[in-house]
Amino acid sequence: MTVLKTSLRSFFAHKWRMLLSGMAVVLSVAFVCGTLVFTATMNNTFDKLFDVSASNVVISSAEADSADEFSPGGSSGKPDTLPGPLADELAGLPGVDVATGVITSTSAMAIDADNESVSPTTGAPTIATHWSPIDERTMTVTEGAPPEGPDQVMVDADTADKSDLALGDPLRLLTAFGDYELTISGIAAFETTNPGAALVYVDSQSASEYLLGGADEVTNVFVDSDGSVSDAELKETIAAAVGSDTYKLQTADEYIEENSDAVGQALSIFEYVLLGFAGIALLVGIFLIVNTFSMLVAQRTREIGLMRAIGSSRRQINRSVLIEALLLGVIASVIGFGLGIGLAVGLMAVMSAVGMELSTDDLLIEPSVPVIGIVLGVLVTLVAAYIPARRAGKISPMAALRDAGMPGDVRAGRIRAALGAVMTVAGLGFLALTGTVDKASEGAGYLALGILLSMIGMIIVGPALVSLVVKGLSIVLLRGFGPIGRLAERNALRNPRRTGATATALMIGLSLVAGLSVVGSSMVASATDQIDSSLGADYVVSTQTMGEIVPNVVEAVSPEQISELDHVSEYRLVESDVTTASGEKIDVIAGAVPESFAQDIETEVVDGEMEAAYAPGGISVGEGDAEDHGLAIGDEVTVAFDVGGEVTLTVQAIVADGSGMFTGTWLFNQQEFLDNAEEELLPSALYIGVADGQEDGARDALETAVQPYPQMEVRDQAEFKEMIEGQVSQMLNMVYGLLALAIIVAVLGVINTLALSVVERTREIGLMRAIGLSRVQLRRMIRLESVVIALFGALLGLGLGMAWGTAGQQLLAMEGMPILEIPWSTIIAVFLGSAVVGLLAALMPAFRAGRMNVLNAIATE
Question: Which residues form the ABC3 transporter permease C-terminal domain (predicted)?
């Protein structure tokens, strides 16, 4: 009980410093709990939608991709289908009440009167379908009426609101089979939560024509039971009637589970990213908590020595510190859980703002969430406080006779420095090994091990580097401030372990920033170099999302329609199974291109000729694939297309890896595909050559041709490179935003260290003020100390991050991205930004130091 009272008294005596330390736990637990609540709510929302819309048995094509697969191949613009009469055939089976055939496509685009797409900005699809009893389960017509006839269309209420659509407004529906002018006849609202898609309804006959090209087919059949049999029995009856392998049959539970799993898989990426950054923040927070408790223990050395002198055991002292940590962990975790709920609600508001309407009525807080958050926060806090607690337990009763502060263990410090140096060198060695492997997959383990060892090694060796690095920084930055600069330097050097731990927290965040910057810049530099060296086309026409291009656009930009053009090369991605002469089977994403493609893309050939590969009967192979599968010029391979059909081709060219935009891609003549495939795929890009002397008018003609199709983009070579750079920059900016959480925690660590350092030096500060040090000089000294600590962490982090990024680029080089680009402007900006971070972190501690009463400070024990 005495130990508990002592712990409580100490905790509340330092409550503000404790809470500042606890902010790391608060933020991390908030991210963990908020992420878990948000994803659970999203899953719950979709579960309700699937539960309402599911029938007892749902039938789809056996060829349809399963919900958890992603096909990188091209698309025909037509969904996988079932025979149209199937629903009528099933209606007479025992146990069937009604069977409803449905036509649904996600390849259509709806365009309003202002020639703007009404598709969601979230990336969710536009779902085109026909109004059926299945839709009446989830939608209610709120205005007008469902579509009747080929010129009417109905949209969902959320899409109507966002795009300012009303009854009677025109709406174009663009599909692979045509461009249709329609008029809005009705608006329907979701009875459940809107999952974010835009829904466009036409009548059933029009759906067949617009979405399937007039084929007597459907995409799904929803079978409702009459209640006399279970779902499983009804599924068996249908399977016996139509064949168990002919179609994909699912009970309601299986349908809901598969679709929920698909949603969960998509959300899991988002979930893992957020949890990963929460983990980084927790790691950084550990150093903050270790530093806080170490300094508090050091400041209470005499107090703890007196407690030991009057009979307190080592275990009691140890337990006292751990009880303080437990209190900190519990309080911070509970606050973090509350903030996590707010974070989840905030994320739902953001999703609603961009089109996915999520209601707080569906907010789902599973019992495991607070348990996970609080246990995690408490555990991390106790682990971080364990070393300071052990150190406190080792204080002897004789410490009561000394001034505050514990002498450091020089021998232990040397051992730690040696161990850290060995681990750092070993980590850098593993990073260097990434350049010696033949495949990126073989080097991934070296990269992961190198990052882990080098990070741990730098954490351990950091205090030993303080003297060398801080002195170097001081010569450049602090000596110009005279005695104040020297005092700031000595304060930073006074306790290397504390300075090292404080800087390490910042090092972790900045090392990740630097590493990702190097990788991102190298990706952009490699891509732009490949474009410069290989792209010969004057223009590239593609969709904003690099999806498939509908036939209307292909026809609109053809040389027959635009006289300024010399040729247009259509590029199609074809998912295929290639069989070599030896019988080996290879999964390949091949490119089907015309012979004019030789003018649009320049490729470095190891053997053979690309013109022969582009000609009928030929195919090109990447150098790596040729070596792996023993292929040479003249070998025959059989290419079986996933859309049906096959063709035998002869290897006519072997392409050097990393030689251009299509390195590693198997390329063959598109006419071979069109003549032999059972289903035509839409092109994903058009590479355009301009006729001689027509350069001035070609761009305007192309822009005019694609103007009716808002999803299309016309890009010259410079704009194509800007698109690549923009995509990488967007990804990096998102990552940097999340890494800011770790940096915020690191800044809290600097603030806390300085604040505790000011308390520790209260008497010293009072004496300096008494002999003439002004408040301005005192505050400047603390700010300079903070800046040098921040820059120390920045140097370690940026150096380590560049090593990580360079190793990562070595693996990218094996995937066709050979250029290493160090983003010096970013590195310098981050380094200078660290100085600003140091200044900001010192504002509060410097202000408090300046307000100290001189006499009271001198009298402090």
Answer: 277-397, 738-853
Arithmetic mean of pLDDT, 678-688? 91
- Tell me which long-range contacts 227-233 makes (C-beta under 8 A, separation of at least 24): 227/97, 228/94, 228/95, 229/94, 229/95, 231/56, 231/57, 233/95
Please report which confidence band the pLDDT of residue 3 belongs to, taking 50, 70 and 90 as the band edges.
low
CA atoms within 13 A on the CB side of 471: 7
What are the C-alpha distances in Å from 620 to residues 617, 653, 658?
Answer: 11, 5, 15
The CA–CA distances, whole Å, from 102 to 129, 148, 212, 225, 766 equal 8, 16, 12, 17, 82
Cα separation, 53 vs 190, whole angstroms: 12
Please give the model's pTM, rounded to 2 decimal places. 0.77
Q: Which residues are within 8 A (CB) of 332 and not within 5 positions of it... i.e. 6 or more apart?
A: 19, 22, 23, 25, 26, 29, 377, 381
DSSP assignments along 46-63, one per residue: HHHHHHHH--SEEEEETT
Tokens of 419: 């161990």
Report yes or no: 477 and 792 within 8 Å, Cβ to Cβ. no
Distance CA 129, CA 188 (A): 13
Pairing of strands 178-190, 152-156: parallel
Q: What confidence tier does 343 reach under pLDDT thresholds 50, 70, 90?
A: confident
Give me the helix-helix angle, 2-13 and 314-353, nearest 10°. 50
Handedness of CA 158, 161, 166, 170 (dihedral sign): negative
Task: State the pLDDT confidence band at 592, using cuts at 50, 70 and 90.
Answer: very high
Rounded-to-integer distance, Cα 202 and Cα 183, Å: 10
Rounded to the nearest 5°, which phi and psi values hold at 308? -65, -35
Amino acid at the residue 790: A
Average pLDDT over residues 364-368: 86
Instruction: Please state, in angstroms and rounded to a whole number, the distance separating the CA atoms of residues 82 and 99.
Output: 13
Show the DSSP H helices in 213-251 as ranges.
Answer: 231-242
d(CA 558, CA 569): 10
